[in-house]
Amino acid sequence: AACQQTYDSLKDDTNWCNAQVVRYWLEHYRGSPGAAHTAAVALYERAAVTGHKQHRGWGARCLALELLRQGDLREARDLLERAIELVSGPSKRVDLIPAVGALAVTHLRAGDRGRALEAADRALELIEESKSPTSHSLLEGCSGAAEVLLAAQAEKWPMRTDRAATWAVRRAMRALGRYKAVFPIGKARHDLWQGDLHKSQGRDEQA
Prior knowledge:
mainly alpha
C-alpha cells in the first residue's frame, strides 16, 4: 500500500499497476475472494484510464477469474476474450495461456462443450510449446486445460474418441506436473485433477 501511495504521488501509473497485480495474486492465492475481487477491479479500472495494453489485459483476466469464481459466466467470458485480444509483446505466451485456459473452463461451466474443448486444446498446445513454466500465473492455463480435458474423457464427449481423450488428459496432467515441479503452489490443483482421474477410472482408494 505504501509503495502504491508513492506511485500515486509521482503519477507513476505503470508501477502502480505492476504493484497492484502482485496484490491481486496474493489475495487470489490466499483464497480471499472479496479482497481479490476488489484488487482486480482497481487494476482493471486504472489500466483502462492509462491505456497500457498489457495492464489492460491483466486487469481483464484477473477480474474474469473472480467473476468466474462467482458464477458470472457471461461477463467472465467477455473479459477473457478481451484479454486474449490484448495479448502482445515478448510475454505473449505467458499472458495467453492462462487466459485461454480460463476461457475453456468458462465455456465448460456454460455447457458449451465444443468451445470448451477448442480452448483447452489451444491452451495445451501453447503450454507444450513452452520449454518450461516461467510464471506462476500459468496455473490457470494448465489447470483449466486439465479440467476440461478430464471432463471430456470422463463424460465421453462425442466429439472426441476414447483414445484421443485419454492421450489429451495424459498430456495435460504431464503439463500440470511440470508446473508443480517449478511452482509448488500448483500441487493442490495437480492433486485435485489427479484424484478426479483416479475416481473416473474406478480407483477410489488412490483418489
